[in-house]
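Notes from the 1:1 (GR / supervisor)

We went over the backlog. Supervisor wanted to see one worked example end to end before approving the batch request, so GR pasted a single chain during the call. The sequence is below; no edits were made to it. Supervisor asked that the structure be written out right there so they could see what the output format looks like.
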Amino acid sequence: MSNTNPDFEQDEFLLDHFVGKTPLVRLQRLASHTQATVLAKLEGNNPAGSVKDRPAYNMIMQAEKRGQIKQGDTLIEATSGNTGIALAMVAAMRGYKMKLIMPASSSQERKDAMRAYGAELIESENMEQARDMAQQMEKDGIGLVLNQFGNPDNVQAHYLTTGPEIWEQTGGKITHFVSSMGTTGTIMGISKYLKEKNPNIQIVGLQPSEGSNIAGIRRWPKEYLPTIFDASRVDQIMDIPQIEAEKTARRLARQEGISAGTSSGGAVWASIQLAEQHPDAVIVCIVCDRGDRYLSTGLFSVEDPE
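Structure output shown during the call:
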């Protein structure tokens, strides 16, 4: 549909009208054995299918406003998947070339989604190597690295949108916020907002347990810890076993009708542990994406014993 009709305001069609404003739903079965309220923020409802739509849009738009980038420029980013897909979508909309570097072990659906938006995909051995490659490409003059791991615009996106949405949707009754930690932008921005509203809200960050491999979240070596991370904004860090994250992702789909990935399963698993410990709690967790990004991994083909 053409938007040249003067009866239409151009701003009506900007993506920021459709990023965010995601539903918050109560888990009906997985936490039914507890007295607490466990709420899942369904970020897979964003246009490109994940919570990363928020920082991707904000990082590009803020860089535009500062005059750092202009239409036709090349953007570069290291990603484990969701940020890359979101950036590819926004780059396509705004007229940028997008080069994405991601571990070869990432799911085929993620790789295909990036290419579908027109991004060039470069594979690496792991995320640390991907980040190093991105920085070298910028030094070589190939393009600008948005750097989700050190970009304050990543944090700002959640401070301005996700945090206020959660506060409003719970009527200010939230007692615990639970989020997996990758770039840590989500937990940093939401923590900043919620703590300003009520310093007693407990912020719980999740990392994989030793030896676990969970897409999208990391136990970063010290030298690669995201510079946007501020440990003082996280009250508790929980280790998530891979087997529990995967099992809970399957249960989430089969018992709640919510299809999501492994890190989201980990967030729900952690929320249930908290619900068992705090019967009066109102717990909000981030379900960061959709399960269709993991079909080729076999995540949902396993039959768990009852």
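Supervisor's comment: Confidence is low (pLDDT under 50) at residues 1-6, 8-13.
Batch request approved.
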